[in-house]
Amino acid sequence: MVTVLYCKLLFKHTHHFPLPWEENPWHQNGGNLTHNIANTGKTVVTISHNADYFFRMAHQAVHAGDHLHALEYLDRALETDPHFAGAWHEKGNCLDDMGRCDEALACYDKALKLDPYNAETWYNRGLTLRRIGRETEAYASINRGIDLALGR
Questions:
Q1: What sign does the CA torsion over 40, 46, 49, 55 have?
Q2: How far is CA 131 from the centre of its chain?
Q3: What secondary structure letter does DSSP report for 117?
Q4: DSSP-derived secondary structure letter, 19
Q5: Domains in the chain: how many in total?
Q6: pLDDT tens per residue, range 5-50
Q7: What distances in angstroms separate CA 82 from CA 76, 110, 141, one per listed residue?
Q8: What is the pTM of this model?
């Protein structure tokens, strides 16, 4: 298993910071990391090595402009760990970049069911809603993301 920290930063895609095993405070502190970061806006998630590998491959594919392969890798990550909210979020980003807005919204909604306090997902969902002309819902979602990012 790989322990991953997700920093919830507004206006950017999810940042994925795998911690090296020897520097991983989850393993050094006997599992007390959740208590240590409870009020910092970060979430501790444990995912499988396979899901992490496919997520990294998707990230590389997106940066190379290869959204189709990125989607394949994200699908493989989600087959391995369907509770991986970050992968649902990134799949939504990828689909939105491809203009597949309805599918992107479905992915953002799945990510929000798993992590309802992710400001970035709310914000990106709002941008997608705005893109397809659903202004009222868009601004509500964007405002929810901003409120969460500001700790409200």
A1: negative
A2: 20
A3: T
A4: P
A5: 1
A6: 443 333 334 434 343 433 344 333 333 333 334 445 555 668 889 9
A7: 10, 10, 24
A8: 0.72
